[in-house]
Amino acid sequence: MSYFAHAHRHHSPIPHWLIQFGVLGVFGVSALDASLIPLPVPGSTDLLVLLLAARHSLPWLLVVVAAGGSVLGGYLTWSAGKKGGEAMLAKYVPKRFLVRLTGWVKGHGISSVAIAAVLPPPIPLLPFLLAAGALGVTRRQFFWAFTCARTARYGLMAWLGATYGRHVLRMWSHYLAGWADVILWVFLGLLAAAILFGIWKYRHDRRMEKLRLQVASGS
What we know:
The chain has nine helices and no strands. The protein is an all-alpha fold. It has one domain (3-177). The longest helix is centred in the last third of the chain and has 39 residues, at 180-218. The chain is globular, with a radius of gyration of 20 Å. The relative contact order is 0.14.
């Protein structure tokens, strides 16, 4: 009997939409979570891996897929920082944190990437990855640090889900099962809003950059 059929027959307390996410959903969520358009709910990938590992026969596969998606999204963010330089940091990082962030990344380099990759929400990952790209952390250093740290993080989530998953599912069933559809639509609405805002901001920044270049060339 397949995993999904088993879940349906036993009326799993995990919402149907969450089960249908599967490993492909984990990959997409983790990639977005580390990209320039992060998910609106901090820790979404951790929660998804935790809940799915509670019923998944191969929790290690969730770790591989979650880490792979996160590395892809993180690499795109690192690349944006490398291409945009410190000007990119000024766009995405509040001024009150910028000096401290740049000092930390310049002083610690590869360690700053690894530590940022395992810091719990709501600490944002985006500024650290942009700074790593803009301030000289090499591609090889980024891949090693980020891959190892993310694998360890999602490995811990999968282990917790596989070990203590029944307790997690009982809590979900008791407190949140009746709100599963509401949670889904709120999450999807927030995600759509975040993606649209990210696209708008990207296009706005491109227009402003072109305008700045035109003004500079005309002066």
